[in-house]
Amino acid sequence: MTPSDCKRLYQITEVQLRYGLDDLLPDDPRVKVPKMARKSLFWIKNKHPEKSLGERLRLALQELGPVWIKFGQMMSTRRDLFPPHIADQLALLQDQVAPFDGKLAKTQMEQELGGPLETWFDDFDETPLASASIAQVHTATLKENGREVVLKVIRPDILPVIQADIRLMYRMAHTISRFLPDARRLRPVEVVHEYEKTLLDELDMMREAANSIQLRRNFEDSGMLYVPEMFTDYSSKKLLVMERIYGITVSDIDALKANGTDMKRLSENAVTVFFTQVFRDSFFHADMHPGNVFVSYENPDNPQWIALDCGIVGTLNREDKRYLAENLLAFFHRDYRKVAELHVDSGWVPPDTNVDGFEVAIRTVCEPIFEKPLGEISFGHVLLNLFNTARRFNMEVQPQLVLLQKTLLYVEGLGRQLYPQLDLWDTAKPFLEDWMSRQVGPQAVVEAVKSKAPFWAEKLPEIPELLYDSLRQGKAMNQRIDKLYDNFMESRRYQGLARFYLGIGATLVVCSAILFSNHIETFPAVSAVTGVTFWLLGWRACRK
C-alpha cells in the first residue's frame, strides 16, 4: 500500500468513526480484531450519536466524496441486502457536489477540443448550469448554426481519486468477505467490481453519447420520450456537447401543475416508456432518478418526458425478457407454481431447488400483498419480495436484474409522486400480455417469417447447388466409411493371425523346455527355434 493510499485510508476511517459507522459491525467473534482496532483509535469519537445509523451512513458517504456518493446510490438499489432504515437513507443520496472553477472547466474543454472555445462556440458561461459528482455542465451557443448547447466536462484529475478509492474498496470487500457471516450471499467483491465497471463507464462521454443516440433513435417517432441531440463532432472521452433542453424538473410538482400537466397521463407514459425500453428495445435508461428526467412544457395534455445522462443503460437478452415477462404475468394471475418453475427453468435458482417449498414461500409472501387494492400495491416492492424470497433458495445475484429493479423503483417512485393513485399493475399488465402474445402466438410466427424472409430470399438461388454439394459430400463420406470399415476388418484379421502365431510359438517354447528337462536331445532345439519363428511371424502380423 502506497503512502497516499495509507493517508486516504486514514481519512476514510476517520470519517467513518466520526459518524459511528463501527456500529455496523455484527456481534460475531470473527470481527474481534476490527473492534479492538477501533478501540485503539480512542481519540476519534462518534460526534453524531443522536442520529439514526442509516442517516449517519448517508452523511458519511456524502462527506467522503463523489466515489462514495455513487457507491451509496448504487447500494440503495440493493434493498434485498439492507434493512429498510438503511436502504431508505441511502436512497436519499443526491449528487450535491460543489462545482469546480469555471475557468478550469474551460481549460479542460479547450484541451479536449484542441483550441480556444471561441473557435466553435459563442456565449460560453463560466458559471456552471449544474454540477455532479462526475461531471459539470456549462451552456454555450454553436457558431455554425446558433443552436443552444450544453458542454458536459469530466471533473479534472478525478480518475486517480476514483482508482485510489476503488483499490481501498476492494481491500475492504475482501476483508468483509472473510469476516462477515453472510458474505457468500452478499458477494462484496463482486458488488465492488460491478460498481467499478459502472463508474468507469460513466467517465466515458463518448459511451454516453452513443447510448443517447441509440435511445433517441428508438423513440424518434414517439411523443412520449425525447432525448437531446448529441453533437459528436465536438465530443470526446472527457467532453460531451449536446442540445440544450428546457423542461420542468420532475420533482417540481407545483410547476407541473401550473403548466396544466395531465399528471395521470404523465405517470402512465412513464410506465409505458419504461416497459417499451425493456421489452421492445432491450435497451433501457438505468439511471432515471429525478435529476435526470424532465417534462416538456409543450402539449401538457399529453406530456412528453425528457431523458438526460444516459451513461448507465441496461440490456436484457431474449431469454431474460421472456422469463421476466412470464414471471410478472404469473404474479398477476397468482400462479405461484409457475413463478417457482420459471425460476428453476431460467437458472436463477439451483436446479435441485424444492419447487413445492419454493411455491409455498412465494405464496406466503405475496398473498397478503394481494389482499390490498391494486392501487395500493407497490409493483417494485413485489419484485423485491420475489427476489428476497428467491434469495433464501440460493438465488444468485443477476446484475441485469439489479439494474432493472433499480430503474423500476425509480419509475414507480416518480409515477406515484406525480399521481398517487397510479395503478402500475393495471398499466403494465396489458403491455406484458400483448408482448407475450407477440412472442408465442400466431403473430410471433408471422414476425419470425418476416424477419427471416430476406435471408431466405438471398439463399434461395443457392439451394440447388447446396443440395448437390450435400449429396456429393454424403457419397464421399460413405466411401470413406466403407474404406475405414475394410481397414478395420483387415486389422482384425491380422490381429487374429498374430494371436494364433503367438499361441503356437508359446506352446512350442514350453514343449522345448519340457523336452530339455527330460534330457531329450535334438527335439528341444528344433521346438525352440520353431516357437521363436512363430513369435516373429506373430510380431510381424501385429505391425500390419
Automatic annotation (TrEMBL):
Listed InterPro entries: ABC1_dom (IPR004147), Kinase-like_dom_sf (IPR011009), UbiB (IPR010232), UbiB_bact (IPR045308), UbiB_kinase (IPR050154)
Active site: 287
Transmembrane stretches, start-end: 497-516, 522-542
GO MF term list: ATP binding; protein kinase activity
The enzyme's E.C. designation: 2.7.-.-
Membrane topology: Multi-pass membrane protein
Positions of ATP binding: 129-137, 152
Matching SUPFAM superfamilies: Protein kinase-like (PK-like) (SSF56112)
One Pfam family here: ABC1
Keywords: ATP-binding, Cell inner membrane, Cell membrane, Kinase, Membrane, Nucleotide-binding, Transferase, Transmembrane, Transmembrane helix, Ubiquinone, Ubiquinone biosynthesis
Residues of the ABC1 atypical kinase-like domain: 93-343
GO process annotations (BP): regulation of ubiquinone biosynthetic process; ubiquinone biosynthetic process
Domain of life: Bacteria
Enzyme class per UniProt: transferase
Compartments where found: Cell membrane
Gene Ontology cellular component terms for the protein in this record: plasma membrane
Pathway this chain belongs to: Cofactor biosynthesis; ubiquinone biosynthesis [regulation]
Recorded family membership: Belongs to the ABC1 family. UbiB subfamily.
Function field: Is probably a protein kinase regulator of UbiI activity which is involved in aerobic coenzyme Q (ubiquinone) biosynthesis.
Protein name: Probable protein kinase UbiB
Taxonomic source organism: Photobacterium lipolyticum
